[in-house]
Structures are given as C-alpha cells and as structure tokens.
UniProtKB/TrEMBL annotation:
<feature type="domain" description="N-acetyltransferase">
    <location>
        <begin position="13"/>
        <end position="189"/>
    </location>
</feature>
<protein>
    <recommendedName>
        <fullName>N-acetyltransferase domain-containing protein</fullName>
    </recommendedName>
</protein>
<dbReference type="GO" id="GO:0016747">
    <property type="term" value="F:acyltransferase activity, transferring groups other than amino-acyl groups"/>
</dbReference>
<dbReference type="Pfam" id="PF13302">
    <property type="entry name" value="Acetyltransf_3"/>
</dbReference>
<dbReference type="InterPro" id="IPR000182">
    <property type="entry name" value="GNAT_dom"/>
</dbReference>
<dbReference type="InterPro" id="IPR016181">
    <property type="entry name" value="Acyl_CoA_acyltransferase"/>
</dbReference>
<dbReference type="InterPro" id="IPR051531">
    <property type="entry name" value="N-acetyltransferase"/>
</dbReference>
Length: 197
C-alpha cells in the first residue's frame, strides 16, 4: 500500500498512496481530519496520523487491495526550459470494506476535501478515476456503495454526478446503527439485502 510509484492521474489530480514515513502526508491528514467539514478528530498530531496510516490504512489495503488514497492537485510550472510538477494535497478518496463479519458485501466509496477546494469538481473527478481503476485493475466491476449522512448534500451531489442511484435511507448496522443515505453504482442489483443492507 505504500508503493511510492503508484499513481492514478486525471487531468487535474493525482491519486496516490499515503506514505506513513512522509511528515507532509501525516501533517495533511491531521489538517484534513480536523477541518471544519470533518473535525474534530482524535488524529491531532503527526504521530497519531502516522500510526493511522501505518496501521488501519495499511491494513485495509493489505486485506482488500484498496483503501484510502491521497488526492493531490497537479500544478505545472515552467522553470527555464524545464517543466516541473507540483503536487498539493487537497483531500482523500477511498474504497473501504471492513473485516468480516462486520462489513457490507461490496466497498463503500468515500471522499473528503479541504474546504478551500470545495465546489470545483475535484471529489467527482477523483471518485470517478478511482472507480474506473477499481473496475479495470481490481475486478470490482462497478459494484460500489455510496453511504453518507442524509444531510450531506455535497456528497449526494457527487453521487448524482457519478450516476449513482439513490436508494433512500437505511439503518447502517456496520456503522453503529446510524441512519444513512444509501446510493449504488449504476447497474447494481435492486435487492440491497444481497449487499448486506
């Protein structure tokens, strides 16, 4: 999961693995998890972020072949005759599936951005690229859930743009029994029970 050469590129973004030994990645995770849109979080220091990346995030990738990824904005600059690429971390995109028996049958697509990067289409662009990669390279065949807080209109908008189907609200037992808005990728079965919902 920490392959430094792994990248999914889109016209504006690069999706890569988090590197637990990279202080900038750890610091960004602290900033993101404690941003007004997500925080507060127990991940409040560089070391706590490093532990999360080296533990839970790495374990998820090892178990499933996918998990949470860093999303960075690509900025091209001309330095004399050389063109350089600068990567600015802006958020995360993920495919998550817990451990048996406490998980759904297919992964959950998630995304989070720093507030300064909202409403620019970055979440949709990153999520679409990750879904295409997962279908092509991981054999997921487009079978992905979108689970979100029913009040999160921004996330609902991303799922709409991705062509996901709104399946209403359900009790999400895997997430402690909270009520969540359930979305499914195009073409998934109408009987949500087969996915554990």
């Amino acid at each position: 999961m920490t392959d430094p050469n792994f990248a999914i590129d889109t016209p504006r973004l690069r999706i890569s693995h988090f590197q637990p030994d990279n202080d900038a990645h750890c610091d960004f995770l602290v900033e993101l998890y404690n941003s007004p849109a997500l925080g507060p979080s127990p991940i409040t220091t560089r070391e706590k972020a490093r532990e999360r990346l080296a533990g839970r995030v790495r374990d998820e990738h090892a178990r499933n072949g996918y998990g949470a990824y860093l999303v960075s904005l690509k900025e091209q600059a001309q330095a004399g005759e050389r063109e350089t690429l600068t990567l600015t971390p802006v958020g995360t995109v993920s495919l998550m599936r817990g451990e048996e028996p406490n998980c759904y049958a297919v992964p959950d697509l998630g995304f989070a951005l720093m507030p300064a990067y909202f409403r620019r289409g970055y979440a949709t662009e990153a999520a679409k690229a990750l879904m295409e990669y997962a279908a092509r390279e991981l054999g997921l065949g487009g079978r992905v859930l979108g689970l979100t807080d029913p009040a999160n209109e921004a996330a609902r908008g991303v799922f709409r743009k991705l062509g996901f189907e709104d399946r209403g609200e359900r009790v999400l037992t895997v997430f402690g029994g909270v009520v969540g808005s359930v979305w499914t990728a195009p073409g998934m079965d109408g009987d949500l029970a087969i996915y554990g919902l």
